[in-house]
Amino acid sequence: MTVLTPALPKTGLAPGLQGRCAACEIRELSVCSALSETELARLRTIITGYHVEPGRTVIEEGGPATDLFNVVRGTVKLYKLLPDGRRQVTGFLFPGDFLGIALNDIYAYSAEAIEPLELCRFPRKKLEALLVELPRLERRLLGETAHELAAAQDQMLLLGRKTAKERVASFLISLSRRAVKRRRPASPLDIPMSRTDMADFLGLTTETVSRTLTQLRNAKLIAPHGRKGIAILDMDGLSALVDGDSSAD
Amino acid sequence: MTVLTPALPKTGLAPGLQGRCAACEIRELSVCSALSETELARLRTIITGYHVEPGRTVIEEGGPATDLFNVVRGTVKLYKLLPDGRRQVTGFLFPGDFLGIALNDIYAYSAEAIEPLELCRFPRKKLEALLVELPRLERRLLGETAHELAAAQDQMLLLGRKTAKERVASFLISLSRRAVKRRRPASPLDIPMSRTDMADFLGLTTETVSRTLTQLRNAKLIAPHGRKGIAILDMDGLSALVDGDSSAD
DNA sequence: GCCTGCCCCTGATATAGATCAATCAGGCTG
DNA sequence: CAGCCTGATTGATCTATATCAGGGGCAGGC
């Protein structure tokens, strides 16, 4: 608990992560916000940077759970597969989000980069050892897991009981809320994922997602914005579609 | 962190819980298994017993999250509602399971007793204070939450991508596995919940659940067992249905 | 500038499961 | 022990969404 890093160890940080954690742009969003400068220095000794190209896999369902990650830049999709290829995307991760919480020593899902990705990697064994010394980090990890659980429960409600229109509207609102958390504007939304990814997240087909977006556009609730963006024209109207629910971030 | 309980405080334990935690029949199943006798004594000072009749609500979505619970006896359903009354059951809890992990100070879902219920109640404030002294309890809580998260992700796959037959088969197998964990037989299954609850859990209607069970019965995979029970006649055949082998009908 | 391939969108048709509508089977009441 | 009442089952029909089938547009390669 007293061993400080004497100097910056070479950790192979990805470009853009060369600086110290103190300068990290997503620090307040991430688990690191739970730590003091001193504790952060301790944590930093086990971190390595990690860059992943779009379409490449970060972790694989069924593979050994050796590492945990913090998303620094880019977007990730998490998914599970059935043997015949049916896919369920269980979540999307953005900068500040935590990746890799595993129950056993096996990852329960796969994670794939959607956009060029920069990650902080924590070897699982070393992180677990550190948790004993950094109770605030453990508390934060519990909070992070509870948060994901709450999001998962919202998603169960969506998948089990909402109509296609309600699902798409919920999704757009959720993206918007998460953008605000990252200090991005609520409205011209960046949509980094494909229609297929959206469909696999919402339990629909790409065709239905596409048709539903067209409906929302015709109803003047949304409008295309640039190549991959969507502007929300009427947030209240959109919210009304999700049946006045409390859909989470 | 040295204050031991000088004597047994009167805690209003429900009938059957009058004894000490040491004699608790679900101790090894629950979070309490993470604790030594001494630590357990510490924990016990904040516990009160709680009895709930079937159909009564334990916690309510949107209400203040004042307590956490351990299920000692009985079955609980967790659910979320849409304003128009559509319901999604997000899980069922059995003896040994933990209830009430909340992100904020507000419960994100409701919990209702299905069978006569006995609970250990932990006031949230007091439990949080204790966590500082009992790091093993906190670790166990993290594990419990991660476990629920994994279950939620499985359920997303079920709700988003599985057919009715796969859903019902998955559900029966899951019930069977959980029975085994509680040292009950894998096969004559107790089904304490109604068809409506099953349907709301599986994202189906009662009619579809009923028809699907009839199909499984006709296929000699299951058979009725007593009033509310189901015997699994062919576990392998049932398992084959779960992951989408379209070989049988 | 012109292919080529990948998304995305749109239209026509099919279908799994929802909805509507009776029974039916127990168990509880009086 | 007859009459309800509630929950489960079964049957007939409907519909939201899947599936099948093109077609269009932008990006990237040559």
Give the distance, in angstroms, between the N- and C-terminal Cα atoms of chain A: 35 Å
Label the structural class of chain A: alpha+beta
What is the largest interface, and how many residues per chain?
A-B, 44 and 45 residues
User: Largest sheet of chain A at a glance?
Assistant: 4 strands, antiparallel
Overall helicity of chain A: 25-40%
Overall pLDDT of chain A: 88
Question: Overview of this structure, please?
Answer:
2 copies of one chain form a homodimer. Chain A has about 250 residues and is an alpha+beta fold. Chain A contains 7 helices and 11 strands. In chain A, the strands form 3 sheets. A 4-stranded antiparallel β-sheet of chain A has the order 1-8-3-6. In chain A, strands 2-7-4-5 form a 4-stranded antiparallel β-sheet. A 3-stranded antiparallel β-sheet of chain A has the order 9-11-10. In chain A, helix 4 (about 165-180) crosses helix 6. The two termini of chain A are about 35 Å apart. Residues about 1-20 and about 245-249 of chain A have low confidence and may be disordered. The interface of A and B includes residues 80, 82, 132, 155 and 162 of A.
